[in-house]
Design goal:
Length: 291
């Protein structure tokens, strides 16, 4: 499996959190692949049998939100995240039920529900993803489901699809360009346009070179956890006039943050912690997006 300039731990420096998670995830995936029942060829067979649940295309769903039908001006869409814990914040909301939370997000108008499936630092599982999907499946215009994960192999993308994801996250900082291109193509082949995550201009170039249609700028640097809300703003000009849905990720806690991005032409915001902690989820969402 390929590592990258950024993802490669050099001998002298201690590994960054991204490198630690990547290393652990490689072991986890190796174990799953060696386990009868979840071997790669078995997942391929399930996919070939058409057993993955039907999916919806990400881009049109992301462009649709409770304000998009009425307002002439551009409106922001919400990607709402299910996140029990995180390496930077520790435990966030251990008792929130993913299926109930997904329903609340969907009914409040989220276009995408992002589910963390990383078990060690984020305390998420593939079952969270599957049950979140099942909870919203009956709704007339359900949100798309995003597998929020540290993806480095086709296997994880196949798993995502079989567990009901409509899209997966690809983190540019974690992957060299050939691997990124290969995983991007595989995800598209399964019908899932990925959310491609960048954190600076060089990574944005790589995402654009790939032809990514949905790009998320993470305001949080995954190597050192520093959060700079201006990160998204600084990259907006690189996608202006382009056929790209631009999303701001991380650190968004109130309508002030959202309004700045709206004025700058950002198309969507991804919110985790603030939503998981909100005492009244739907009231919080209405206030956040001014819906
Ligand atoms: O909880 P926040 O600050 O609203 O952030 C959500 C989301 O952006 C964050 O969870 C995230 C962005 N990119 C990631 C990559 C892996 C894991 C997590 C993430």
């Amino acid at each position: 499996m390929s590592t990258t300039t950024n993802g490669d731990a050099s001998a002298s420096k201690p590994p960054t959190i991204l490198q630690k998670i990547y290393a652990q995830r490689q072991k986890d995936v190796e174990l799953a692949q060696a386990t009868p029942g979840t071997r790669p060829d078995e997942l391929d067979t399930y996919l070939a049998m058409g057993l993955a649940p039907p999916l919806i295309p990400l881009v049109p769903r992301l462009k649709r939100n409770p304000a998009s039908s009425t307002s002439a001006s551009s409106s922001l869409s919400l990607m709402a995240e299910i996140k029990r814990a995180s390496p930077s914040k520790g435990d966030i909301a251990l008792t929130v039920n993913p299926a109930q939370q997904a329903l609340l997000y969907a009914k409040a108008g989220a276009s995408v529900i992002s589910v963390l499936t990383e078990p060690t630092w984020f305390k998420g599982t593939l079952l969270d993803l599957r049950l979140a999907r099942q909870a919203v499946d009956v709704l007339p215009d359900r949100p798309a489901l995003l597998r929020k994960e540290f993806v480095f192999s086709e296997y994880q993308i196949a798993e995502a699809r079989l567990h009901g994801a409509d899209t997966v996250l690809l983190i540019v900082a974690m992957l060299d360009q050939p691997t990124l291109a290969r995983l991007y193509a595989y995800s598209c082949k399964l019908g899932m346009e990925p959310l491609v995550e960048v954190n600076n201009a060089a990574e944005m170039h790589r995402a654009l070179e790939l032809g990514a249609k949905v790009i998320g700028v993470n305001n949080r640097n995954l190597h050192d956890f520093s959060v700079d809300m201006g990160t998204t703003s600084s990259l907006v000009d690189m996608v202006r006039e382009k056929d790209v849905v631009l999303c701001a990720l991380s650190g968004i806690s109130g309508p002030g943050d959202v309004n700045v991005y709206k004025e700058q032409g950002v198309n969507a915001v991804l919110v985790g912690e603030a939503l998981m902690r909100a005492p009244d989820t739907s009231a919080f969402i209405k206030n956040l997006l001014a819906w």
